[in-house]
Design brief:
single chain, 246 residues, alpha+beta, Arc Repressor Mutant, subunit A, SH3 type barrels, five-stranded antiparallel beta sheet, two-stranded antiparallel ribbon, 41% helix, globular
Length: 246
């Protein structure tokens, strides 16, 4: 039994290691010139420092331009001016991205996310892409009806460019107003997306449910620099949609 178990581990380990090498190369890519210590890499992937050193050696052997610096403050990074080869995804990772985007049709920049994911899937090697497409057929998404594309585009543009957006808005009580809003952030609560911004009509931060915005147009007026700190303290279970820091 032990012999069989050990045989099974040795059989699947290359797959796990390949995924770890992909993730390791991405972490080194994101770390930039400051690099990462072997200890930090080991903690990130749940392996020993010795395993990290073997993995880095494998990346170097494949031609990746990696530098190493021994001693305190040392670690590994990508040589200045160098770049790691593109990282491919496993079929499950590709489907995870496809499913996440499909299930979040109301999320800000969802159309751009969908186009970006399709670009990633299109450049996968044919075998991985075929397996990903087969697996994707086993994942169904019942997406909610999307709000007006024109409204969402205007609000997204105003947020990205930090310009005032003029909206026609109907509140939950049925009152309709036209307001100039300085977009500060998007926030999702219980699956409902809100535009959070400085309302020039009220002179205060207000939350606007995106689906209740009946009209939106981007003005040429720049925002005055209100920050998300003015929104208040987020609840404990809230987190930004940011790339995981290293």
């Amino acid at each position: 039994m032990c012999h069989y178990f050990c045989h099974e581990i040795s059989r699947v380990e290359p797959v796990k290691r390949a995924e770890r090498l992909h993730a390791l190369s991405e972490m080194l890519r994101r770390s930039g010139a400051r690099g990462c210590t072997a200890e930090k890499l080991a903690a990130e992937f749940g392996v020993s420092v010795r395993t990290v050193k073997r993995d880095v050696a494998a990346l170097e052997g494949s031609g990746a331009p990696i530098w190493s610096r021994p001693g305190p403050g040392g670690g590994y990074g990508v040589v200045a001016g160098g770049s790691l080869p593109p990282v491919s995804l496993s079929p499950a990772q590709a489907v995870a991205l496809l499913a996440a985007v499909a299930a979040a049709s109301e999320a800000p920049y969802a159309d751009l996310a969908s186009a970006g994911v399709r670009k990633i899937v299109d450049v996968l090697d044919p075998r991985t892409r075929t397996r990903a497409e087969e697996l994707a057929r086993r994942v169904w998404v019942n997406a909610t009806p999307s709000s007006s594309r024109a409204i969402r585009s205007a609000v997204e543009e105003a947020m990205a460019d930090q310009r005032v957006v003029r909206i026609r808005y109907t509140s939950g009580r049925g009152a309709t107003t036209t307001r100039d809003v300085e977009p500060m952030m998007f926030a999702s609560t219980n699956g409902i997306w809100h535009l959070v911004g400085w309302c020039r009509l009220r002179g205060a931060v207000r939350w606007f449910t995106v689906n209740r915005i009946e009209r939106a147009s981007v003005t040429t007026t720049p925002c005055e620099g209100h920050t998300i700190d003015e929104v208040g303290t987020p609840p404990p279970n809230a987190r930004p949609a940011a790339v995981h820091g290293v």
